[in-house]
Amino acid sequence: MKIEIITIGDELLIGQVIDTNSAWMGRQLNNAGFELSRVNSISDSEEEILNILHEASQRADVVLMTGGLGPTKDDITKKTLCKYFDTQLLFDEQVFEDIKNLLKVYVPNINELNRQQAMVPANCTVIRNPVGSAPIMWFDRGGTIYVSMPGVPSEMKNAMGNEILPRLLKRFSNGIIVHKTVVVSGIPESSLAEMLSEFERSMPDFVKLAYLPSAGRIRLRFTGRGKDKDRIERTLDKLIAQLETIVGDSILAYGDLTTVEVIAALFTHKKISLSTAESCTGGNIAHQITKLPGSSNYFKGSVVAYHNEVKINLLNVDSAQLEQNGAVSQYVVEQMAQGVRTKLGTDYSVATSGIAGPDGGSQDKPVGTIWIAVAGPNNIESACFSFGSQRERNIVRSTEMALVMLKKMVDRDRS
């Protein structure tokens, strides 16, 4: 069984509105055991809507549409659906009553545009919308189900959760889908794919492996499909155990966790404390840490030492060594890490110093040169990275790598 999503609206294509509906629906469908095969975003154009409906009818068992159901002239979905299904719009008294009840608090006099929203295609099954003025429309033709829902996310979610998914589950016998994720860091995607080529060839047909790269890390998502959940679970667990023998300590986390979530769990469990000293990352490491609730249990604070005077006066970096080596150097970043750890009295600390860009680089230290240090009770470790010329990317990559280095040190110290 295949499901397609069609999101309708010029605002989606010009970037004025981000299509969050498809992502949300995809998660809900997946959790219910359905397979989403395609997502399309199209303009408020009769021709585009008709074309995509015709194409989808050749591929999909269920077509879910959102958008274009408002009362304005550019909302043409209903009229186009009438043309596609060779029917006409009829006035629905129940829908009109729902609209009046919904709007009476805000609109004293119902106008013609509001009345037009109660017009629905004659051959659809109308599903009431308790949280909006646009009704949900369900069509069943030629073995394919078509559902048209409002594009407003809250209305779409109410329709999907309370009406559409229950009807699909009742109509179709779907299988079981199990996902398990392993997060790997420190290995480029191409290198990891090469390492896992034989491993992937040996996987059973009902399991797929997806590579989901982001800054400094790769999420390996195992997906098993079938009827026997226990069998799928056992198979995925065995595959993950095999994966461990291949990538070893490059595994950062089990489960779909961010690196900062891994750090939060680790430091909370170990009852240890953390501080940061940041130059090129400008406080982004501290920001990512404190976005999570409960971070005050382990995170004491941060010094954003953007200027050299702050490095010297607050973090006790030796001025002569700073002058000799430069701010972007192993010596300075290690002194920053040790300085903030001592100043704030924490078990561990992280420091960054680099050239985020787009200017400020030199032949010896080009833009993207980043030094990162982590300090703990037993030692200080540092490394130099080159992340490229894009400022925001350098900040994100530096933040990620600093947290990865921190986790590895804590794992070694506390194992």
Write up what this structure looks like:
By secondary structure, this protein is an alpha/beta fold. The chain has three domains: 3-171, 3-Layer(aba) Sandwich (Molybdenum Cofactor Biosythetic Enzyme, Chain A); 176-254, 2-Layer Sandwich (Alpha-Beta Plaits); 259-414, CinA-like (Maf protein). It is built from 16 helices and 17 strands. It has helices at 10-13, 21-31, 46-59, 77-84, 93-103, 112-116, 153-171, 189-195, 197-201, 229-247, 259-270, 284-290, 308-315, 319-325, 330-344, 391-414, and strands at 3-8, 36-42, 62-66, 89-91, 119-121, 125-127, 136-141, 144-149, 176-185, 207-214, 217-226, 251-254, 274-278, 299-304, 348-354, 369-375, 380-386. It has a six-stranded mixed sheet, sandwiched between helices. A hairpin with a 4-residue loop joins strand 16 and strand 17. Helix 2 runs parallel beside helix 7 (153-171) and helix 3 (46-59) crosses helix 4. The longest helix is centred in the last third of the chain and has 24 residues, at 391-414. The chain is elongated, with a radius of gyration of 28 Å. The model has no long low-confidence stretch (mean pLDDT 94). This is CinA-like protein. Residues 4-171 form the MoaB/Mog domain. Belongs to the CinA family. Pfam families: CinA, CinA_KH, MoCF_biosynth.
